[in-house]
Amino acid sequence: MVSQTQPTLPSSCLQVLQTHTAPINTLAFSHSGGTFILTGSSDRQIHLSRTEPSSSKTTSTTSAITNEPSASGNIPTAPVITTPIQRYTSHGYPVLSIAVTQPNNHFASSSADRSGPFLWDIQTPDTTLRRFGGNSPSPHTSRITCVSFAADDSILASGSDDRSIRLWDMKSRDARPLMILEEAKDGISALVTRDTEIISGSTDGRLRSYDARMGRCTVDVQPGPVTSLDLSRDGRAILVGCLDGKIRYMDRENGNCLRTFPPDAKLGGDEGYVNKSLRLQSCLAQNESLVLSGSEADGRVRAWDVLSGKQIGSVEVSSAGKVLSVVKWREGSEIENRRGVWAAGGVDGVVKVYG
């Protein structure tokens, strides 16, 4: 259920993470309104940082910079973080995906390593807990583009350019995957999960939904290669990004397209949004009232109203106009007195957090 009030895009820069030395490929917030963010980069590292500054004062590892003007016209300051809390450095290739368990104590990551997705204890950066498929007779045979936890974190799903999804048992030490799903005709580019359901997008332009309990697969055809997926909380709708330059909000029951972002030109479409060649990752935000996405064109993150389909704002994240490849939202928590925030990163290796 989306909000009936006019949503707005939070645009105050809370902090800038300059801890990586190469493009940002993936972001993951801690769950339940958590205060941490994991960032994965082509520098082969994963960094753990705070979502927001721990205090209003900067430390010896921070400075102040942001290009977001305040209401008074002055340029406010946001701390620039140059040293993460933890660095995880076991990957030998660019990090492509991160997924966090619900208790926030473990996370999984994937890269071009064909040895399988890695499982980490968030407090132990020096070594991995498991390397799924590393000693398996049936590992992935190409880079692993996406990971997601399912069935109350008891299953880890991994998707690969080898056209397969593998399901790994988190509670067993068996090196073999629980199940191998090989219906895709091209590489798997995105995964989302809900309970025992695994939903994949692939570059063959197909959206496949698997019921791991019933062994059933349903297929929806998309107008282009799929670049990103985000599932609504009730599981009835899904946000699908494609390389035809459109993001679609789909009804999962009947396969109908509820909204397209940006809308057609005659309905006020935005020519500044471009997604023709890269894997841009968009998301639902603000209690599913907004769609957020970066662009290949101009270094801006745009927000569209889910109800009207209209663009309601944008933020210049990269002043140099660099590609913004991934945008993630974290809901606020009234109980924990935390506000909703979003983060974006791209080819310049910088992650900015807004609220």
TrEMBL record:
Superkingdom: Eukaryota
Name of this chain's protein: Uncharacterized protein
